[in-house]
Write a structure and sequence with these properties.
- With 188 residues, this protein is α/β, with parallel strands linked by helices.
- 23% of the residues lie in helices and 19% in strands.
- The chain has a 6-stranded mixed beta sheet. A two-stranded antiparallel ribbon has the order 2-6. A two-stranded antiparallel sheet has the order 7-8.
Length: 188
């Protein structure tokens, strides 16, 4: 993604494909958006490019389309963003609303990370590297979010739900965030 991204007052990124998820609610009054949580997802597991992620986040996952879907089709989950393998950016929930991505979670003594975080899903798994196009878009998105919200930390799902979650997994390149963390320190 060569151009800079832009965001409106509701937290919608103009350059993202918006697919409205019903799985969100209002953040608690006075909640400051100060955390970004990075996840990975593939549906079916290990397969990329299909409609499974969008169907899950919009409650349209067909339990008969894949054996794994029979286990998860009743989940009511969402994330603010998904970055596909080819770098396509999708948004399911405006940033100002609370997406349901973190589940039971805690960061620095604060429970319920959904209340104060933005969730970003990378299409991928714990078992292989992410695509260069995904990192390019992720960097642009993080730069936008850090400039727009008082973000203090960028963590993995495994950091806020240790023992329960492993994503974004061992292949995620945390070093690509190094410059961004310096910018956060300057601005925070």
């Amino acid at each position: 993604m060569d151009q800079a991204l832009s965001i409106d007052q509701q937290g919608l990124v103009a350059e993202a494909e918006f697919i409205a998820s019903p799985n969100f609610d209002a953040r608690p009054a006075g909640s400051e958006i100060c955390l970004i949580v990075i996840h990975n997802i593939s549906l079916p597991p290990g397969k990329y490019g299909g409609p499974g992620i969008s169907e899950l986040f919009t409650n349209r996952l067909n339990p008969h389309a894949h054996p794994y879907y029979a286990e998860i089709h009743q989940l009511r989950v969402s994330s603010h963003f998904v970055i596909r393998r080819d770098g396509a950016l999708q948004q399911f929930v405006p940033c100002e609303a609370r997406a349901w991505h973190a589940g039971v979670s805690s960061w620095q003594g604060r429970e319920r990370c959904n209340d104060f975080s933005i969730g970003i899903e990378l299409e991928g798994s714990d078992f292989e590297p992410f695509a260069t196009a995904q990192y390019t878009v992720l960097q642009a998105l993080l730069k936008l979010l850090v400039s727009h919200y008082p973000i203090r930390d960028i963590v993995g799902h495994s950091d806020i739900a240790p023992g329960r979650k492993t994503d974004p997994g061992p292949h995620f390149n945390w070093k690509m965030l190094a410059g961004l963390k310096l910018d956060m320190a300057k601005n925070g």
